[in-house]
Amino acid sequence: MSGDEACAEGGISAGCKFFAGYPITPATEIAERMSDRLPEVGGTYIQMEDELASMAAILGASWGGVRAMTATSGPGFSLMMENIGLGVMLETPCVVVNIQRGGPSTGLPTLTGQGDMMQARWGSHGHYSIIALAPNSPQESFDLTVKAFNLSERYRVPVLVMSGAAVGHMYEKVVIPPASEIEIVPRRKPAVPPEEYWPFKPDDDLVPPMANSGEGYGFHVTGLTHDERGYPAMNPEAQDRLVRRLVEKIENYRSEIVELEEDGIEGAEVVVCSYGISARVALIAIERARSAGIRVGMLRLVTVWPFPEDRVREIAGQVRAFVVPEINYGQISLEVERCAGSKARTILVPHMGGTVHNPETILDAIKQAVK
Amino acid sequence: MNNVTLDTEGHPLDIYLRVDRLPHIWCAGCGLGSILGSLLRGLVDSGFDMKKVALVSGIGCTGRAAGYVKLDSFHTTHGRAIPFATGLKLANPELKVVIFSGDGDLAAIGGNHLIHAGRRNIDMTVICVNNFNYGMTGGQFGPTTPWNARTTTSRRGNIESAFNLPHLAAASGAVYVARWTTAQIRQLERAIKEALLKRGFSFIEVISPCPTYYGRMNQQASGLDQMRHYRANSVVKHGANPSEVDIDLEGQIVVGKFIDIERPYLPE
C-alpha cells in the first residue's frame, strides 16, 4: 500500500476512532482511507470546512475521550498551527500527519518537500516543545503513526508525523502485525475523585492525568495561561511555571522519546545526518562513498523533534563533519550545526523540492567533507 | 431531573458556578451575567444530567463564561468553539454540547464554522451574545455593528452593513432560531430550554448591552439606557421571516422564535 494509506492503517491499528480533515494533495488518500475504515471500527469520519476546523475538531474529539487524528499538507498545516497551539496548551493527545509538498504557499501540490520541519517545531506562537517523527517508507508510515498515538497519550501533546509526497505516494509492502502485537499506551486517568481533580496538576514526570468530558469531573480548561486547577492566571509566575513544564515534560524525557537509526558511526570520518526520504536517498551516496574508501556513518532521525542534541554533540566530537541532505534550503542542518558547534563542520546539501536529491550531490558533499 | 433546593447562604445556581472565581470580569451594566444565569436555569429546567453537559466558548467577553461554570467547560481559540464542539459531540454523542460565545467570535472569525455547523445540522445549541462590537479589545466595530454606529474604529460611523444573524443561521440550516434581548429574560430562558431540548443545530441570538463601549459611543451610556432602548423598541414576532429581522442603529428589534423545524441531524 502507499505511505498515505499506511498512515491511515496505522491510525486504525492504534485505536484511532475519529478523523477530521479537509482534502489536500498529497494527503487526501489518508482521508479517503479513513472515511472507509473508521465506520468499520465504530469510528467517525468528518470532513470539515477547513483545516482550522479540522484541528479544532480533533482536539474536541480527544477531550470527548477518543483517539483522534487529522492529515494535511503544507497549506493546511499552516492553518492548523493555531489549534496545534491550543492542543499544546490544553495538553491534548492527538496526531497530525503532514504529507509535505513543495512550498511556500500553494507551491508544488503534487511534488515532495521537507520545508515544514521548522514550522513543525515553532509554527504556533509562543514557546513550547512538541514531538515530530519522520517516516522513510510506507512501513514506517504505519509504524510511526502507531507510535505517534502512543507518544501523544504518554506526553499529552499533539504528535506530528512529518512525511512527504515521496513517501506518501510510494507503494511498498506493509506488514500490519496482529492487534495483540501492537502496543497501545492508554490515556492516563485521574486517580482522585472529581472534587479533588485538577486538570493540570502533573504527576512526578510533569504530565497530568486527563479526565474526559462527560465522566463527571466538571473540569475547566482554557487556552489562557492557567494554574494547575485550569483557572486563568495572568501573572509572570504562572506563565513561568506553565511554559517550563510544557517544555520540560518533553525535553527532560528526550532519551525516552528519541528514536534514531545509526550505521557505521564508530570510526567514521563523516556522518550523514538526515531524515525521511532524504535519509533513504542518502544511503546510495553512503554506499558509493564507502566503495571509494571513505569512512561514512549514517544518523537517521526517526524522531526529529525533540532534537537528539546529546547524540549529535557526542558524534560531533568523533567526526570531521556532518553532511545534512534535506529537501529545503537548510532547516534541520541548523540544529545539527548548533549542536556540532566548532567540533565538526556541518555541510548542508539543500534541494528545493519537487524531487528527491540526486545521490551524486550528497556524494560530492561527503567527498568535500573529508578533503 | 436536578433538584435545586433553596439555600439561604448562597444562590441556588452556585452549585453550577465556580464561585471561587467570582467576581467575574464583566463590566457593570453588561448583560452577560443575566444571560449566563438564563442558560444555567434553562439547563436545570431541561433536566439534563449536568455531568453530561459541556460548555464550549471562543474568545472575547462572552467566551469567558466557560471559566465561571462548574461543568466540563472549554475556553478555546478565537472563532473555533463550534468546530471544537463538533469533535467533542461526535466523539461522545451522550454529551449535551452548548456553545456560548459572542457575535465577533461566532460571526466574524468563526463565521465559516457557524454556517457549516448549520448545514450539517449538528446536535448542539449556540447561544450567541450580540453586543454589536468587540468589547474585550476596546469596542471596535464587528460583523453585527449597525450601519453608521460609532465604535472605536468607526468614529465617524460604521460604513459597513451588519449581518442579520437569525437570517444567517436559518439560511445555513439551523432547525431552531430565536432572538431575545436581555430585557426579556423570561422569554430568553424559555427559548434556551426549547433550544436545548431540540435535536439538531439550534441558535439563539441574545442582544446584550455593552455600556462601556458600544452604548457609551451611541448615546446609551449605561446598561440601563440600553435596556430601556431594548424594551421600548423590541417587537415580538414569532414566526417572522428571518430575512426581515435586520437590526438598525435606531428602530425596532424584532424578537421571538423564528424557526422551529425538523430535519436529519448529526450524529444520528
Summarize the structure.
The complex is a heterodimer of chains A (371) and B (268). By secondary structure, chain A is an alpha/beta fold. Chain A has 13 helices and 14 strands.
Q: Would you write up a description of this structure?
A:
- The complex is a heterodimer of chains A (371) and B (268).
- Chain A folds into two domains: 3-181, Rossmann fold; 261-369, 3-Layer(aba) Sandwich (Rossmann fold).
- The mean pLDDT of chain A is 98.
- In chain A, helix 1 (3-13) packs parallel to helix 6, helix 3 packs parallel to helix 4 and helix 10 (276-291) packs across helix 13 (359-369).
- Chain A is globular.
- In chain A, the strands form two sheets. In chain A, strands 1, 2, 3, 4, 5, 6, 7 and 12 form an eight-stranded mixed β-sheet that branches. Chain A has a five-stranded mixed β-sheet with strand order 9-11-10-13-14, sandwiched between helices.
- Chain A is an alpha/beta fold and 371 residues long.
- Chain A is built from 13 helices and 14 strands.
- In chain A, 58% of the residues are buried.
- Chain B has one domain (12-260): 3-Layer(aba) Sandwich (Rossmann fold), CATH 3.40.50.
- Chain B has helices at 32-45, 81-91, 103-109, 111-120, 165-172, 185-197, 211-217, 223-233, and strands spanning 53-57, 72-75, 96-102, 124-130, 176-181, 201-207, 234-236, 253-260.
- Chain B has an eight-stranded mixed β-sheet, sandwiched between helices.
- In chain B, helix 1 (32-45) crosses helix 6, helix 3 (103-109) packs across helix 4 (111-120) and helix 4 (111-120) crosses helix 5.
- The longest helix of chain B is centred in the N-terminal third of the chain and has 14 residues, at 32-45.
- The chains are: A alpha/beta (371), B alpha/beta (268).
- The interface between A and B is large, with 43 and 37 residues.
